[in-house]
Amino acid sequence: MKSAYLYVRVSTDEQMRKGYSLPEQEERLLKYCELNQRNLQRRFFSKGL
Questions:
Q1: Which residues of this protein are catalytic (predicted)?
Q2: CA dist., res. 45 & res. 15, Å (int)
Q3: Which of 48, 49, 24, 17 is CA-nearest to residue 6?
């Protein structure tokens, strides 16, 4: 199984309002890992606001 490292980032308030919030991005990435059999190693978050 391949490893995965998640990097979740939001740069602007507009991104937050348009469905790209940190939790929404994380959820999508976790689903991707599950569907593609990736072994999650670590998560990184950056709130560039």
A1: 11
A2: 15
A3: 24
Distance separating alpha carbons of residues 6 and 16, to the nearest angstrom: 18
**21 given a catalytic annotation:** no
- Is the pTM higher than 0.85? no
Give me the pLDDT at residue 7, please.
Answer: 96
Cα dihedral across residues 20, 22, 23, 29: positive or negative? positive
Structure tokens at 38: 């990736």
> What are the residue ranges spanned by the domains of the chain?
2-44
Task: From the candidates 3, 11, 21, 46, give the one annotated as an active-site residue.
Answer: 11
